Amino acid sequence: MKKCNVTINWPNGVSTYSKPGKGWIESARKAGIEIPMGCLKGSCGACEIEVNGEVTRACINTIPTSNEILNIKLYTDPYW
Ligand code: FES
Predict the structure, then answer these.
(1) Number of domains in the chain
(2) What is the pTM of this model?
(3) Residue from 25, 41, 80 whose mutation best tests the ligand 1 pocket (most atoms within 8 A of CB)
(4) pLDDT, tens digit, 9 for 90 and up, residues 14-51
């Protein structure tokens, strides 16, 4: 049987479980984290997070299917 949930470990120590294809913003909120937002169109970079070492823009990308455990780091941009 194929697993459909991804474990997401957030920097505040909370883990959430989600199906691939769901949005990062919603998943972060479940963990009690507000990802900073700007344009919501993928151009400003305010919402960048690091997913298993790779930077992704949370507003336009979804939870991938390639990993079952994802470790997240947040960036803080002094301009946002
Ligand atoms: S909010 Fe601007 S790139 Fe995501």
Answers:
(1) 1
(2) 0.85
(3) 41
(4) 999 999 999 999 999 999 999 999 999 999 999 999 99
